[in-house]
Task: structure prediction
Amino acid sequence: TYGFSVRLRSPEHILGELILLKRLGVRHVYMQADLFTVSREQVAELCRLMLAEGLRISWSCSSRTDTVDLELLQLMGRTGCRRITWAIESASEVVLWRNGKGTRAEETERAITWARAAGIESWGSFLIGLPGETDETVQQTVTLAKRLSLERAIFELAVPRLGTPLWTQAAESGWLRQGAHWADADASGPAILDYPWLRATRLEQWLERAYREWALRPGSLWSQLQHLTPARAPVSLDVSLYQT
Result:
């Protein structure tokens, strides 16, 4: 979390940019927003405008499974949405609620099922090392990732960004790894958080193990073959939904 407020751009302005990008030969657009569906009304109106304009362009976004419904995903699929990266983060409701994240496993499974029905791929983003994390909850998260119908799983270490509640809590509780500096923090490691019950080195081990278990899950090789990157990728650009 980087902030607590957002200023949305109008769907009409976003549509204008998409039309221009289409004319310039751009074949894929990433909708630049941490939570694309933060406003259902904005997204639904943008999709309706795209349909009315007859605009078809491949696009992708990031979202959370508790902010969508079947109707919205069907609208998104009809306008060319090809992939959603879901911020699933953890399988543990205790960890999620402790960190102000209200999603539940059943909501996640339902949203991914809806997305697939709408012709949209699902990638899952998972965090390892949020406050309240234990060996057991990390294993629950890895198991959930393997069970979900995801085209790809992305595992990252929880990183306390300066000025966020997580940073404040970690600093006050003595959870920052000795010698680590926030400016060097990277979600791929080394770990910055260092709990007495779950050391930074253990979190790094879990990150490696999560990717290993995901790669060795049943059906993994076939899934990877289906999603090999083409030799020549389409021209792709980002479009922001937020005002700066």
